[in-house]
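step 3/5: co-fold with adenosine-5'-diphosphate
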Amino acid sequence: MKVIELIDVFKIYKTEFYEVHALNGITMNVEKGEFIAIMGPSGSGKSTLLHLIGCLDKPTKGEVIINGTETSKLSDGELTKLRRDSIGFIFQQYNLVPTLTALENVELPMIFKGIPKEERKEKAMDLLRQVGIEDLADRKPKEISGGQQQRVAIARALANSPAILLCDEPTGNLDSKTGRQVIEIIRKMNEERGVTVILVTHDFSLADYADRIVKIRDGKIEGARD
Ligand SMILES: Nc1ncnc2c1ncn2[C@@H]1O[C@H](COP(=O)(O)OP(=O)(O)O)[C@@H](O)[C@H]1O
Ligand SMILES: [Mg+2]
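step 4/5: write tokens
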């Protein structure tokens, strides 16, 4: 089953003074449970592509189909629900809430969804266990390392059991050993939970964890290998 389908997708950023053609006709399909690495030079459109798949932005032209639904047909409320229930994001900068503990950060998406407190805490603790940091549940982000913060971010991204996990250079701030551990956790979550993963990375050794590598350049797919 196709979980993501992009059909001839273009994205043009227009400002008062210039236009940037960030994506120039991307067509790709992602099957449920796949782990895909996206590689390409800086400025080639990788983050733009993740934003469109994650429904954080809309294409200028073309179709973005998530779980069989053409997203341009959805209202803002329906898009918010799709993002909340079906898509998890992790970023290079972790983006944790600094005033909340690790456990509370993981609980946050479940609060937005209205999950009752007891169930929420139990599930958050279970996720922290799965990423190997249950003993750090009461620490705030600045009291743990970058690799540990990224583990919290992975747990948070998976809190509402999304179908899709989008990872934008999640190891960009980590040393290579820690980066590898983080990718191994993402791969484990992909295998154990069946979450579909799209990983943007510069690092060929990390892209090796993927089932398939998609290379993009100047907003176009350059070539994909199995
Ligand atoms: N919000 C924006 N407004 C204008 N231009 C943008 C915006 N976001 C990205 N761009 C431009 O679009 C191109 C693709 O950017 P991006 O998707 O961030 O590439 P990558 O993630 O591969 O480095 C770049 O030329 C970038 O400067
Ligand atoms: Mg980027």
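step 5/5: annotate
Strands lie at 2-14, 19-31, 35-39, 61-66, 69-70, 87-91, 164-168, 196-200, 212-217, 220-225.
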